[in-house]
Amino acid sequence: MDAALSEEQHQIKRTLRDLLAGHAPPPKVRAAAEAPAGYDEDLWRRLAKEVGLAGLVVERQHGGAGCGPVELALAFEETGRALLPSPLLATCALAAPLVAALGTSRQRDALLPRLAGGDLTGTLVVPCGTLPAALGLTGPQDGEWAGGARSGGVQARRTPTGWRLYGEAPQVLDGHSAGLLLVAARAGGPVRPCVLLFAVDPEQSRVRRTRLVTMDQTRPQARLEFRDAEAEPLGPDAADARAPLVALAGGVTAALAAEAVGAAERVLELTVEYARMREQFGRPIGSFQAIKHRLADLYVAVCAARSAAYYAAWSGRAAAGALALAQALETARTVAAEGVQLHGGIGVTWEHDVQLYFKRVSSDELLFGPVHGLRACAAELAGLFDPQNDREAVVL
What we know:
Structural class: alpha+beta
CATH class of the largest domain: Mainly Alpha
Order of helices and strands: HHHHHHEHEEEEEEHEEHHHH
Low-confidence stretches: none
Radius of gyration: 21 Å
Shape: globular
Mean pLDDT: 91
């Protein structure tokens, strides 16, 4: 592995950082989070058209940049630094790769150019579980996260006029604004149950969408109700979606880990700046040895988490991704908590930016954890506890 980034990869980071510094400062981030869509739609289209962010991992033949998981992780790191509310996770890391992997040629030609161009946003609807459960990172991939065979979650029924969905999903990323819903639904009944992915146009189908009040306003979520909604299977009718979702785990976890690293790095920068400015006993608090040691420990933790995220993106292995995400979430939580404490009373006020990052990392650990579950999954995938495994070292 060559740990150094290429010039093109450095350019992706520089371009995004400069653009977000000018167009997504904290006041605009707060305003965008309160917008009806939950993000700045004009900025998202600009990022898609000028930078190619929306189509970063979409193949060139469908209007994308044709980049890989490393470039996607770098983009997530920069948006995490800015705490940018955007459809990047739901659209670019989930919806577009699933359409590319499962969709028919007609579906790919119809959907991928619009997703890559920023004209269409999408999301994955996981009815009864969490995203890590759907990706096979917190337990067996038995499909229970899509609902029971008879009730619960979202059920799919085939009719003479096509497929219909009914049920609900209580917590969907960008569910209130996405123009394309990729809904994981149970089909086949109790005899031959399977999990299929369906493409749903919420504007043309009977879908009720309710935006939720969340702890982290920069990560909007919604409750979706399907009432005999028209749906089109993504790919062949009988293609079970569980294996493709598991295959997606490595890239998604690496991207989320990089995003958490970016947020942790920015909190650390804000805390160091404050420690240099805030004076106590006639000197900056950053000059005290105890504060120096705490900040140094945080810096080392952020560097280690970044290395893990980059390796996970480079390797594409689900075990490396799960381990990197666990480390990044834990690091971000630690850095944000220390940042709030070292800022003193101002760190918990609504006016200060540190509390926004604290809410983001606290919410992410609930959405994409738990940390111990991710580590257990990484150990299982790597075969660490396999009695038949007599290797001296396990490569994640």
